[in-house]
Amino acid sequence: MLTLANMRHLEDLSEFLGVSKLQLMENAGRSVAYELAQRFTLQGKKILVVCYHGNNGGDGFVAARYLRDAGFSVDVLFIGQKKKLKEEALVNYSKIKSMKANYKNIDFSSYDLIIDALLGTGFCGGMLPNLADAITSINNSPAKKICVDVPSGVLAETGKHGLYVHPSLLITFHDVKTGLVAWKKRTVVVDIGIPKQAEDILTKNNITKKILSAVIKNRLPESHKGQFGRVLVVAGCVDYVGAASLCAQAALATLRSGVDIVTVAAPEKVAWAINCLTPDIITKKLTGNFFVPKHLKNVLALAAKHDVVLIGPGMGLEKQTVLFVQHLVKELTAQKKPMVIDADALKAIILQEVDNAILTPHKKELDILLQNCRLTRMNIRKDLQENVLLVKGATDYIITKNDIHYNTTGNPGMTVGGTGDVLAGLCAGFLAQSKLPKESACAAAYLNGTVGDALLKEKGYGFVASDFVDMIPKIIKKQLD
After folding, report:
1. How many distinct structural domains can be found in the chain?
2. What is the pLDDT of residue 148?
3. Distance of alpha carbon 102 from alpha carbon 105, whole angstroms
4. pLDDT at res. 220
5. Is there a single domain that holds both residue 216 and residue 189?
6. Which of 99, 220, 320, 471 is deepest in the core (most CB within 10 A)?
7. Are residues 182 and 209 in the same domain?
8. Is residue 151 located within the same domain as residue 226?
9. Whole-angstrom distance, CA of residue 477 vs CA of residue 350
10. Residue 257: is its pLDDT beyond 90?
11. In a shared domain, residues 61 and 155
12. Same structural domain for residues 220 and 189?
């Protein structure tokens, strides 16, 4: 049995292991066509494939193509809008132009077999009129009904349903979903090419609180200032109204992680604003409103006095700032200085020219990074070198050239601005103490999500990023006790 969350993890992990979601869709649709050809006499029969916007519809487009290419009579009824098709589904929609049928001219009762590829695992309840009409027409037809992955209208996680397609056969992918046991006797499971390594990662590599003890140093009576790490935060610009706050969030989160000293190097107006926000942060005030190449010498001199450099929050993408980031990262890479690269700085760099860094993109920033580096998710690991990629999302993925870990702490309330800066600060703080990039990224992702979950319990979805800063030491204490 497979939960929806685990299925999505497997699909994402497969992509990072080299099997794209487009290939998974191709495999799924081909497997549906093969099963039908094995189980039914299709020659001389009329087949209708009914599709909608999501990946389930994409699976249907692929199945229709394979059935057509095998010489069978196939029509495709797409009841959605082309502009709403997801990426992989759109690719396969473009390959079936000659097979599309007009809804007004469709007689569902004239078909011998109808493939239901309307609503898949993403269905959350509620039914638009056109979907309800299509499902009713499918059910009223004497044709055999073949459901792709999930009977349309059924919640795959729980099995709850209102109006739904009544399957003669259910062809599901990789494993039976938890909510589909009622149809188990009518279900066949097909392989879609998810690598075994993805299953192994899902079984073994979920991050737990044990990781925190690997990156937080014990304090002994003879401990002295600086022994627990020094972090330089390079961030901010005056065009970004919230830049000072974002820089402060990252810097304070770094302090809360247990390091001794945090310095923020920022344009002078931003630096003064940070001083007003908190007295706990040392600032280096740089002339002007943006980072420019002339600041490089001063920032490198500061970096030499710190264990880790965090680059990116609120910097903006002014042309001179991009040049500054590129030169700074190049110099720090040559010096083998540990870095955390976040936010705008991710859009300025070429991954192949960076080493010894934790990079913290969300999915859109990852797409920009990949585009700039001429890489894909499938081949990014071969160019990671000694870098660690922490991809932020509903599930966080921590990726190195050798392995992948994932983190499931956190909640939708963490979409609020600034939580990513807190995460970057935690990465820098843990890295400064432990000198362990992968472990620091894993611990930061776990702790950030755990703090978010605690805030959700305490405040509901009304929490903001500054709440994280105050909650961090409480959660660390609770997790380590």
Report:
1. 2
2. 97
3. 5
4. 55
5. no
6. 471
7. no
8. no
9. 38
10. no
11. yes
12. no
Q: What is the pLDDT of residue 216?
A: 87
Asked if residue 135 and residue 73 are part of one domain, the reply reads: yes
Q: What is the distance between the alpha carbons of residues 69 and 47, in angstroms, rounded to a whole number?
A: 13
Are residues 114 and 141 located together in one domain of the fold? yes
Instruction: Find all residues with CB under 8 Å of 313, minimum gap 6, and list them.
Output: 233, 235, 236, 243, 246, 247, 249, 250, 342, 343, 344, 421, 424
Residue at which a domain ends, from 136, 163, 196: 196
pLDDT at 17 over 60: yes
